[in-house]
Specification:
Elements lengths: L6 E4 L2 E4 L2 H23 L3 H7 L7 H23 L5 H23 L5 H4 L3 H16 L8
Antiparallel strand pairs: 1-2
Helix pairs in contact: 1-3, 1-6, 3-4, 4-6
Length: 145
């Protein structure tokens, strides 16, 4: 009697010691969270302008940021559908998360953001670390069929 390998394929579902399930859940949670947050941002233009003066003078930059960030949430949902297949895109997802974190960190260090503007990176830091874990958990040499 042979023992089953740690990597099992059933239908289109691939699992390797729970790594795929972990990656699926991380990117699914990130995508759902992001869709909810970014959808609300479409309706908060005036609130953001009032809460963090001066008022936003370039709505194209604001809505452009919201639109591009919303698109990334869809990418996270796509990755969650098949983390192994879309693993190369996880590298770009890391750039999305840590590029934003680095940008806000530099702006805060230079005194160009108040703490409330800087603190919004909290969820991105957590998700970025989970993205790193998902990337490494899906990277074993035994993952390819």
């Amino acid at each position: 009697m042979t023992q089953p390998s740690a990597w099992q394929v059933s239908g289109t579902e691939r699992d390797w010691g729970g790594s795929m399930k972990f990656a699926k859940n991380v990117f699914l949670a990130a995508g759902v969270w992001g869709v909810l947050v970014m959808t609300s941002m479409y309706f908060l233009f005036d609130v953001v302008s009032l809460q963090y003066p001066p008022p936003i003078t370039h709505p194209d930059f604001y809505y452009g940021f919201v639109s591009i960030t919303f698109a990334w949430q869809i990418v996270f949902l796509v990755i969650s559908a098949d983390p192994l297949r879309y693993r190369p895109i996880m590298a770009a997802a890391l750039v999305e998360k840590f590029g934003y974190i680095a940008t806000l960190s530099v702006l805060y260090a230079k005194g160009q953001l108040v703490f409330g503007q800087f603190a919004v990176i909290g969820p991105d830091v957590v998700l970025g670390l989970l993205f790193i874990a998902a990337f490494f958990k899906t990277g074993g040499k035994n993952h390819h069929a």
